[in-house]
Amino acid sequence: MPCGVRALWRPLAACAGAAAGGGLLALWTGVPLASLFLPPELVTGAGVYAVLTCASGALAVLTVTGTSVLTREQHGAYLAGWAVATVTAVALLLTVADPVTGTALALGVAPLAGAVVHLAAPALIPSRIRPS
Questions:
Q1: What is the reported pTM?
Q2: How far is 16 from 60, CA to CA, in rounded Å?
Q3: Do 121 and 69 touch, CB atoms closer than 8 A?
Q4: How far apart (Å, rounded) are the C-alpha atoms in residues 58 and 12?
Q5: How many other CB atoms are found less than 10 A from the CB of residue 33?
Q6: Which of 36, 68, 108, 112 has its CA 20 to 30 A from that of 60?
Q7: CB of 126 closer than 8 Å to CB of 76
Q8: Of 45, 15, 18, 40, which Cα lies nearest the Cα of 30?
Q9: 93's torsion region: left (phi>0), alpha (psi -120 to 50) or beta?
Q10: Cβ–Cβ under 8 Å, residues 34 and 43
């Protein structure tokens, strides 16, 4: 495993921990907070808020891995990761019948698919940065 990828585990763990903690917080406070700001017909169950909050942590993972790829000047890999995430999100939104399920899947799965591309880039593409 390249050193740069190994250095990502702590920030990625922080993203996952923050998403999990936020999801638990959303489970308890999502409905009351949504009720303050939204009309009653737009307020949904606490589980939906928790899942969406946890899934949004996947976007943080994609952002961290993308930044890592850019520091190695692998702009093509950066673009490929975001393109895979975008195509995956659109595919999930178009193929899943229930909009809530589709949104949760698109938020959670699509960024992780792009992050896999970013994490694989160091092993597949040599870096342009030369050690000094």
A1: 0.82
A2: 9
A3: yes
A4: 9
A5: 14
A6: 36
A7: no
A8: 45
A9: alpha
A10: yes
3-state SS class at 45: coil
- 122 contact partners, CB below 8 Å, separation of at least 6: 2, 4, 5, 72, 74
pLDDT in tens, 43-94: 999 999 999 899 989 999 999 999 999 988 899 999 999 999 999 999 999 9
Question: What does the alpha-carbon distance between residue 23 and residue 54 come to, in Å, rounded to a whole number?
Answer: 5
42: how many CB neighbours lie within 10 A of its CB? Answer: 9
> How many Cβ atoms from other residues are within 10 Å of residue 2's Cβ?
13
Rounded Cα–Cα distance for residues 76 and 42 (Å): 40
Please give the radius of gyration of the chain, using alpha carbons only, rounded to the nearest integer.
17
Please give the Cα distance from 72 to 127 (Å, whole number). 6
Name the residue type at position 3: C
